[in-house]
């Protein structure tokens, strides 16, 4: 568990460093784009590569055919068999001094997470109480509220957000300044900045011990406010009036709002310099756009593909190993108890694999990698009676909890020839070992 966490942390830190390098190359472009990159770096902490790797390994790649002299070639059809694991097949997890260390680390993490989470929850409750007590602003949009709280203009709530405007500012800002300040807040609503901030707050709560998480939060704050400033200026608001409105807000509303999107947030010196400057964000060049899309695709697809390749190779190795193990196993056959009509199941243990409630047609299907209904011919003796087959291996079965039913094909093929004397034809060719009775025979096997 600790090893998996360490892997996740260094991978997330690496993505954070990559995000920083990318934002450096995008200094002249829009802040909204840089904010999106930092948001992706934040979300990486919630999505470990190991999860993508596991998803890829679960899906896997098409398995290579098994070339083995212990059984017939696998068909293209999927084998449908339910595999169960016997209680004694898995080893118990060892406990000792390591568990005490893990418990202590877990307690420390939980204490820090509770501290950060409770602090965030209290701030949210204060913001919600201010929003509920606010009253509609005269002559403004319906989502604008006036509050008597000593805060700066800000946006509260994720769903049905409202702009909180302190009453003390109503007489201090000119109409053009007020319009620019409100435009800034409405940009926060349009960009869903509170939702993005809440997501990062979750990351900060879970990974409060990682300095990169808090650094990402500061970068997101700066780029978020810069993005709103760019949008306000892009919509035609006067630079001087806008900068003057922000400075007036800072002069008369010194208490920071207990919400996440506020007009006076971020590095005010840098913001005012940008607002009063004459620069505009450059459009994204096709080369940069293609590079960003390619990097995102590689980051997302690489662990999925690696997991798929690893899963396919691992399943291939397990199947090959278990083919050899079960191919030399001792096979025992007996009739299933009367009245058993449940579907066939395979129970795997460390040194034994049991096939329960299997018909002869099921065995042929299992041996040749096809569905039972694809085995044609024979009479009622192919579907009744039902049998219990036990394969007792001389060496342990590899990973019995992940046993591929196709690993039994060699053992079942030998059973079909030695005990049932069946002659099985695939594409008009008798398979080896080849018995004397054809599947089209009407008489039961001897």
Strand content: 5-15%
- In which range does the helix fraction lie? 40-55%
How do the SSEs run, as a string of H and E?
HHHEHEEEEHHHHEHHEEEHEHEEEE
Give the low-pLDDT segments.
Answer: 64-81, 88-95, 436-446
**Strand line-up of the largest beta sheet:** 1-8-9-10-7
Q: How many β strands by DSSP?
A: 14
**What structural class results from the helix and strand content?**
alpha+beta
Kindly list the characteristics that best describe this protein.
alpha+beta, five-stranded mixed beta sheet, 12 helices, disordered C terminus
Please provide a written account of the structure.
It is a single chain. This protein is an alpha+beta fold. It folds into two domains: 2-47 and 98-284, no CATH class; 308-438, no CATH class. It has helices at 2-25, 31-44, 49-59, 97-133, 175-191, 193-206, 211-234, 239-252, 268-276, 286-327, 360-368, 409-419; strands spanning 82-85, 135-136, 144-147, 154-156, 162-166, 261-262, 330-335, 345-348, 352-358, 387-392, 422-423, 425-426, 429-430, 437-438. The strands form four sheets. Strands 1-8-9-10-7 form a five-stranded mixed sheet, covered by helices on one side. The protein has a five-stranded mixed sheet with strand order 2-3-5-4-6, with helices on both faces. The longest helix is centred in the last third of the chain and has 42 residues, at 286-327. The radius of gyration is 34 Å and the shape is elongated. It starts with a helix and ends in an 8-residue tail after the last strand.
